[in-house]
């Protein structure tokens, strides 16, 4: 099978699964649904891995980004069944983790138009919710918090600067940075970041990255005052 068709098939499966999940969440008769076939989650994770392995190829990346509803589906899967009072299992954790990782990879390679679409789809909100609902316990939870703080800091810095470590140049997008901050603030980001600034676990690494996030938002505020 050609790579282009593999991408289409994988994306189609991901979008179809997400649409089905959204419909189930909206249906009254499905509100009490507590489980899904484990095999379904495993297949979707494998499709996510398949696409992510090709994201560094420019042509493949462009094809993925142009697929309607793929970014929206990835944001939805990044928050899959969070807040539904359903017991967490490893397959759901992996589904959320791979979806987030894939979105981060897309953001790292994205141009200005895709950065805009990511923000419009709630990318900033997703990053913050990933911190406040970090799964696991002990070191596993700390690692997830660290990962998301790292991603938020890099994301908020990359937009107004118009560059990140894999996409050296795109149009500076300060308004998108502000919109992303607003998405996070709506979810209680200020309080959560302040709490993580007092988190001394992981030898102070979490605290350091929480301070980086705070600095990124303060720099944005100072920049706005100067305009």
Keywords:
mainly alpha, 2 domains, disordered C terminus, globular, 227 residues, Glutathione S-transferase Yfyf (Class Pi), Chain A, domain 2
Summarize the structure.
This protein is mainly α and 227 residues long.
- Strand percent estimate: under 5%
- Give the H and E element order: HHHHHHHHHHH
How far apart, in Å, are the first and last alpha carbons? 53 Å
Tally of DSSP β-strands: 0
Oligomer: single chain
Task: Report mean pLDDT, rounded to a whole number.
Answer: 82
Overall number of domains: 2
CATH class placement of the largest domain = Mainly Alpha
Shape: globular
In helices, the fraction of residues equals over 70%
Counting DSSP H or I runs of 4 or more residues, the number of helices is 11
CATH topology description of the largest domain: Glutathione S-transferase Yfyf (Class Pi), Chain A, domain 2
- What structural category arises from helix and sheet content? mainly alpha
Rg for CA atoms: 18 Å
Query: Which residue ranges are poorly predicted, with pLDDT under 50 across at least 5 consecutive positions?
Result: 28-32, 221-227
The biggest beta sheet reads: none
CATH architecture of the largest domain: Up-down Bundle
């Amino acid at each position: 099978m050609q790579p282009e068709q593999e991408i289409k098939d994988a994306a189609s499966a991901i979008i179809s699964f997400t649409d089905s999940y959204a419909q189930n969440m909206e249906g009254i008769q499905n509100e009490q649904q507590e489980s899904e076939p484990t095999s379904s989650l495993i297949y979707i994770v494998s499709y996510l891995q398949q696409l992510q392995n090709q994201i560094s190829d420019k042509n493949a990346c462009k094809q993925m980004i142009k697929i309607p509803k793929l970014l929206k589906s990835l944001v939805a899967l990044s928050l899959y069944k969070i807040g539904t009072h359903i017991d967490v299992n490893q397959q759901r954790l992996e589904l959320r983790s791979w979806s987030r990782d894939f979105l981060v990879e897309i953001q790292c390679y994205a141009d200005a138009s895709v950065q805009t679409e990511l923000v419009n789809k709630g990318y900033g909100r997703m990053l913050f919710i990933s911190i406040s609902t970090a799964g696991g316990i002990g070191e596993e939870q700390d690692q997830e918090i660290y990962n998301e703080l790292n991603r938020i800091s890099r994301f908020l810095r990359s937009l107004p600067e118009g560059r990140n470590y894999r996409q050296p140049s795109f149009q500076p997008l300060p308004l998108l940075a502000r919109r992303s901050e607003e998405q996070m603030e709506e979810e209680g980001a200020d309080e959560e970041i302040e709490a993580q600034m007092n988190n001394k676990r992981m030898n102070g690494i979490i605290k350091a990255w929480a301070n980086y996030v705070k600095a990124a938002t303060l720099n944005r505020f100072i920049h706005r005052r100067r305009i």
